[in-house]
Each structure stands twice: as C-alpha cells, then as structure tokens.
Specification:
By secondary structure, the chain is α+β, with helices and mostly antiparallel strands. The protein contains 16 helices and 17 strands. Strand 9 and strand 10 form a beta hairpin. The protein binds adenosine-5'-diphosphate.
Length: 587
C-alpha cells in the first residue's frame, strides 16, 4: 500500500473514531440537556397552574377547576389534570373529569402526594400514547391538598430530539468531510517531497545518478533531500571513478599480448581477454559464465586449472595446444583469494611462445646453414691450397685448374658474404633512404649488364608501357638489387636458347613488374619454400651457378618493405614468372 494511502487511511480512521466519539458524547449531552429543560419547562407550567389554585373555594368546585385547566391548556399546549389527595380527578383539560378513574395509583401523582415532584415518561391508558408527566403538589397553607399534573406527548420531545440529532450529526459530518479534504491536501503537500525522494531513490537504484531532489526548505524532509543529493553526487563520483578504472583495466586487458583467463571456484569463466580467446580459439560471444571444461579443449591445461583451484598454489608450465592450431604456450596459474583468504578461483596467464620458438629455430637453422655454406668453399679452397703446397703447383695444368677453382670458390664466398651482409642490413630494419627515381632508366642500366654478360644464353625481351611511367618512390639501389636477383635467377635457370622477359605496367596505382623465363621451372611442391633463406630446389645446380640460396629471400624482404607483394607462377620445364609491385611517387 502506498505511503500516502496508508497515511490517509490512518487519518480517516482517526477522524472517524474521533467523530463517532464526539458525536455520541455530544448527542447524549444535548439530548439530556433538552430533556431536562423540557421537564423543567413542564414543571414551571405545573407550578403556574398550581398558582391558579391558591384559593381553596375554587378548588372545592370541580367545574371551576375543569374550566381553569381547559383555559390554561389552550395556551400551555399539553394535558393538565388536577386531582385531590384521594386521587379523585377534579379537572382535566383533555377528558371529561367525571369519567376519569381515580388517579391515586399513578406513580407521578403518588410522588407528588408525598410532597415530591413526580416526573415520569410512561404510556397513558387514557390517551393511548406515551406521555411525559410532571406532577406538582398543590399546597394550601403548607398542607398538600391535591396534585397538578401536566402531561405532554413524548413524540413532540422525540421529534425535537431527532431534529437536534440531525443537526448535530450533519454538522459533525460536514466538519469531518472538511477536515478530511483539508487533511488530504495537507497530506499531499507533506507526502510530495517524500514521494519525490522515493522516485529519486528508485532512479538511483536503476543507475540514473544524475537524479536530484528539487525540494528546498528548512524542514527535515528538505534535509533528507539534501542528504540524498549529496549521496547521489558521491555515488556518481565513485561510479565514474570505478567506470574509469574498469575502462582502463579493460583496455589494458584487451591490448595485452598475453592471454588472461579468470575462472571462479565453480570452474566457470569470469573473464577471457581477446588474446586468450585467440590463443584458445574461443568465439567472443557467450564465454562468460560458461564452464571452463566446455571451452578449454586441452587436457593438460584443464588439469593445471583444476590443480590450482584445489591446492591454491601458483604454477608455471609450458604446453602444446592442438586447437585451433598447433601452438606452444607458457602458462602461469595463480589462485584468486577473497579478503578472508578463501579460494575464489584462479587466474591463468597464457603466453604464446610459438613465434618465439619458431624464430629461435629459424635462427639456429640460419646459423647452421651459414656455417655449412661457408665451410664448403673454405674446405675446398683449403684442400686445393694444401694439394698445391704439397707439390701439385709443379704441374702447370693442375695449377691452372686449381687456381681457377680457388678463384670460383672465392667468388662464391664473396657472393655469400655480400648476400649475408645485405640480409643483415635488411634484418636490422634500418630504413634505407627513399627517393623518387625513373624506373625505365634503372631497367636500362640493369638490362645492359645482362645483355653484356648473358648474350650467349638467350634473348632478353622488354615489354614497356606506351605511356610514360610515374617515378618509383623507394631506395634505388635496393630495387636495382631486386631486378638483378630476379633476372640473374631467370638467366641462371634458363638453358641456352631460352628467353627472359621483363614486363612493366601500371596497375591499381602501383607499378607492376614481371620477370619471366622459359627455363627449367620450379616443381610445385617447392614453390611455397623458394623464398626461404638457403632454400634451393637443386642445391648442386644452384651452387654450380654461383647461387647462395639467399637471393629470393632478399628480394621478398625488399619488396615487402615497400608494402608490395611478390608472387611466383611456375611449371616444371616450362618456365617461371616472378611478379612484384612497386610504390609510385605521389606528387
Ligand atoms: P639461388 O642463389 O640458389 O638462386 P635464390 O634464393 O635466388 O637462390 O633462389 C632459390 C631457388 O629457387 C633456387 O635455388 C632455384 O632452385 C629456384 N629458382 C629461383 N629462380 C628460378 C627460376 N627463374 N627458374 C627456376 N628456378 C628458380
């Protein structure tokens, strides 16, 4: 029930009770008062009648008595009876006194005969109705000689009392109604700020912290309103601090490279940041609240989580995940405890080591490859030098052959070292200076070098666009190196009589270059790996041609450093096409 309704109900009950009590008391009091004054009035009338009979002679003659009472009754509005001490009726204003019986048995007359004033309400056998009797002793010279009795219809008093009651009750009802209306208005006014406070409290509880009480004054309700406003302000401040902290924490968690998983004591997920979702292959929707068993599909990790939740101990471990892809991860697990120290769950930090481990492997492989590549020419140079020292130099033909071989091996060593230096430079991520340059001019430069050195191997064709090409924006030397490496490979792996073609065109705001040959081609299974360092389809052939196995990895590195992409299409014994893009100078 509403506060105002309840207040009003109490008020109505209160007013009702007071009204009833007050009305009953007042009616009772007034009725008694009216009744008493009625009797008093009758008594006075009886006394006045009695005053008419001070003369004994008059009293002796009943006819005179009768006419006197009849005369007075006309004015007095009631029945007047006079009896003597024996109860014999001497005169009556309403009936023929001669026909009336002896009245000595009437209680009021009996009382008057004893010298008292007889007052009684009773049924009149003569008039057949209830009457109010007042009997007054008639004295002459101090002696009771008879009784004067006045009788009035009780209905007259009753109707008077009824009118009185109606007036009192209607007065009280009108007062009560006015009091209720007035009370309702006051209550509305008093309860309004309280209802306002209630509304405010509801709005605050629903999260609207901008809600404020607009009730000013110096009463307790205004003070309460002020306290509410202060509370709302403090709550809003605290909320915004908490929200800020939460936002910061969320941003930190979301941008952490490490996966964070928070699990409650029922092994349900409380939180999983994006990295954790990526590592564990979870979709971001509806992870929260799900049992970790349904989500973490790794037996080893699940065991660790359960162990932390049971023992409350922190753990660290490295494990392999096979879903969604193969991953090597490092896990740190720590218990989460409540303020009172009870175990509330656990926090799991997932660190994806896959790339790190891969990189370590690549580095190890690289070192091994470099050592191997260096050792081969050095070993053969050393072997040939020792043979020569041991006397072979005396044989001219041998000397010539060995010196030529040593020269070749030195070239290979020099190539290898140059390529390694280039790679080291590219790996160091030191950006080479960029400048706009004319690509056609660069092609001409490179073309001359190949026409001169490879004229015997095959034809070199050039496809250039009809219109002018925009300038390329990159490091000229690096792009030159790309062209040289690709053309060098094309000539190296194309038998004599073949053809090497360099095509250039504009596509989607970039310059596209294709180096194609109709040489030995690359087997399909090797296509995906030829850009790896030291990867060669045919090691012997590559080495024989002075190849290091690093050329394509350098090319890829350079092209990608300019946001480009290198692609290869090849079929065995048909030839290969290497295509890449170059950025153009915007200006
Ligand atoms: P290399 O110094 O051995 O040529 P690259 O990195 O330049 O090293 O090339 C890697 C391998 O890719 C080569 O060993 C060769 O087997 C293959 N290859 C590269 N270009 C061609 C081509 N145009 N035709 C056929 N095979 C090629």
């Amino acid at each position: 029930m509403k506060f105002r309704t309840r207040l009003f109900l109490f008020y109505i009950i209160g007013i009702g009770l007071i009204t009833i009590l007050w009305a009953s008391y007042f009616i009772h009091f007034e009725e008694n008062r009216v009744r008493d004054s009625w009797r008093e009035h009758e008594l006075i009338q009886a006394k006045l009648v009695a005053a008419n009979f001070t003369d004994g002679a008059q009293f002796q003659d009943p006819r005179k008595v009768s006419s006197t009472v009849a005369r007075i009754a006309k004015v007095a509005d009631g029945r007047i009876t006079v009896v003597d001490t024996a109860g014999k009726v001497l005169g009556d204003s309403s009936e023929d006194y001669t026909k009336l019986p002896n009245h000595s048995d009437r209680p009021e007359i009996r009382a008057a005969l004893f010298g008292r004033i007889g007052m009684i309400d009773r049924f009149s056998d003569t008039l057949k109705q209830r009457l109010i009797y007042v009997a007054y002793p008639l004295r002459m010279k101090g002696k009771i000689v008879g009784v004067v009795r006045i009788a009035k219809e009780e209905s007259a008093l009753s109707s008077l009392l009824l009118r009185l009651r109606i007036v009192i009750i209607s007065g009280i009802i009108i007062t009560a109604i006015l009091t209720l209306i007035f009370g309702a208005l006051i209550m509305r006014r008093l309860s309004e700020p309280i209802l306002d406070l209630k509304g405010l409290a509801l709005r605050i509880s629903r999260g609207d912290l901008s809600a404020r009480v607009r009730y000013f004054g110096d009463d307790e309700v205004a003070e309460l309103g002020l306290a509410f406003n202060n509370m709302a302000e403090k709550l809003a401040d605290s909320f915004s601090i908490i929200k800020d902290e939460k936002r910061k924490l969320e941003a930190i968690l979301e941008n952490l490279v490490d996966g964070i998983l928070v699990i409650d004591s029922d092994l349900k997920i409380v939180l999983a940041n994006r990295a954790a979702q990526d590592i564990l292959g979870l979709s971001s929707s509806n992870i929260q609240g799900r049992p970790v068993l349904e989500v973490v599909l790794n037996h080893h990790l699940m065991n660790l989580i359960q162990e932390v939740n049971l023992s409350g101990q922190a753990f660290e471990s490295e494990l392999f995940l096979y879903y969604p892809d193969n991953k090597q991860i490092q896990v740190f697990l720590a218990p989460l405890k409540d303020d009172d120290g009870t175990l509330a769950g656990s926090i799991v930090v997932l660190n994806d080591l896959t790339k790190l481990r891969q990189l370590e492997r690549v580095r190890q492989d690289f070192v091994a490859n470099v050592s191997h590549e260096l050792r081969t020419p050095i070993t053969s140079v050393k072997a040939m030098a020792e043979t020569l020292i041991n006397g072979a130099w005396k044989d001219q033909a041998m000397l010539d052959r060995y010196l030529e071989a040593i020269d070749q091996e030195s070239d290979r060593l020099s190539n290898l070292i140059n390529d390694l230096l280039d790679l080291a430079k590219l790996d160091s991520n030191v950006e080479a200076s960029k400048e706009p340059f004319d690509f056609i001019q660069l092609i001409t430069e490179v073309q001359e070098r190949f026409i001169n050195t490879n004229s015997e191997k095959g034809l070199f064709a050039l496809d250039l666009p009809d219109s002018d090409l925009p300038e390329v924006e990159a490091n000229r030397d690096r792009i030159k190196q790309v062209l040289i490496n690709l053309l060098d490979n094309a000539f190296k792996y194309t038998p004599p009589g073949g053809q090497v073609r360099l095509s250039v065109w504009l596509e989607n705001g970039r310059i596209k270059v294709a180096v194609s040959d109709n040489g030995i081609g690359i087997p399909k299974e090797d296509l995906g790996r030829i850009f790896e360092r030291f990867y060669r389809v045919d090691k012997a052939r590559s080495r024989e041609k002075g190849g290091t196995g690093l050329g394509l990895s350098i090319v890829k590195h350079i092209v990608e450093s300019y946001g480009g992409k290198i692609e290869v299409e090849s079929s065995l014994h048909q030839g290969s096409v290497f295509t890449f893009t170059l950025p153009i100078h915007q200006g």
